[in-house]
Write a structure and sequence with these properties.
Blueprint: H1 5-12, H2 14-47, H3 69-74, E1 85-92, E2 94-104, H4 106-112, H5 120-129, E3 137-140, H6 145-151, H7 155-167, E4 176-178, H8 190-197, E5 201-203, E6 210-218, H9 222-234, E7 238-246
Parallel strand pairs: 3-6, 6-7
Antiparallel strand pairs: 1-2, 4-5
Length: 274
């Protein structure tokens, strides 16, 4: 049938054409809805294994199990580890920057999922790019006490613990401390960021000779620079840094692959000179 006859045919029976179109739309919607339900119901099975069981509310994925259930589950014979995770709607800095995420018990989640080697490839690549020999200590960028109480954990410390475990190196989370509660770096330019973290860190005790400094996110490198200078003044001979993510200041500095030994600004180099 010539294509020119299609509009004429549709317009000659408008009611039938609208009903046909509506039925197609409803059918597609129902298929998508049913598929979503099947995937949601199957998610627990996919996340489980022969030695791992996912327990969730019978009402919905978005409904919390009562907190009192956790000790009851832990008391079941054969249960070794229990880790909680819960769906929540997170925002980053502003309500308009929404992201869908799970809140998890980070201390135990990876014990349940040993196949998730979060830092293995990252650390292996960093080891090839960072100076040898192996570090004497892995040191996380510290949070101020107020910020730590507010946040509940230090992301850099969590990463540093994983790095230390991966390369079998000592973790030293006490040698570097934040002595000044600085305002957030968000929205500050490079010069303001440097001024903001100046004299914000200090060393406590004996500083190892070779240090890997670990942070979660690097923007301009002002915080890492401040930490590295303090460590060098405290006696470190070599300070190198690795981070989980970084924001290149301009395209010419963008580099593929894991983020290690990456120069970000003229006075920010890894390893730092004395």
């Amino acid at each position: 049938m010539p294509l020119g006859l299609v509009p004429r045919f549709l317009l000659s029976h408008p009611v039938r054409s609208l009903l046909t179109l509506a039925s197609i739309v409803v059918a597609v919607f129902l298929v998508a809805l049913l598929r979503t339900i099947v995937v949601s119901l199957d998610a627990g099975v996919q996340a489980a294994s022969a030695n791992r069981l996912v327990v969730q509310s019978a009402v919905s994925l978005f409904v919390n199990l009562p907190q009192s259930y956790q000790p009851r589950i832990e008391s079941v014979e054969g249960v070794e580890v229990v880790a909680k995770w819960q769906w929540f709607g997170g925002i980053y800095q502003d309500p308009s920057q929404f992201f869908a995420q799970f809140g998890v018990d980070a201390d135990h989640l990876l014990d349940l999922y040993p196949e998730l080697r979060v830092v293995e490839g990252w650390v292996r690549a960093a080891s090839h790019r960072l100076p040898s020999p192996a570090p004497d200590a892995i040191v996380p960028v510290p949070l101020h006490g107020r910020r730590l109480r507010e946040r509940g954990f230090n992301p850099a410390a969590r990463l540093a613990r994983a790095v230390a475990r991966e390369i079998d190196a000592p973790l030293d989370a006490s040698v570097l401390v934040r002595v000044r509660d600085t305002p957030s770096q968000t929205g500050l330019d490079r010069r303001a960021r440097r001024a903001n973290v100046e004299d914000a860190f200090a060393c406590r005790g004996l500083v190892p000779a070779r240090v890997w400094l670990v942070d979660d996110v690097v923007t301009t490198g002002a915080t890492l620079s401040a930490c590295a200078k303090v460590l060098r003044r405290g006696g470190a001979e070599q300070v190198a840094a690795i981070c989980a993510a970084w924001t290149p200041p301009h395209r010419s500095l963008a580099a593929p692959g894991p983020n290690a030994h990456i120069p970000i600004e003229p006075d920010w180099r890894m390893p730092w000179p004395g």
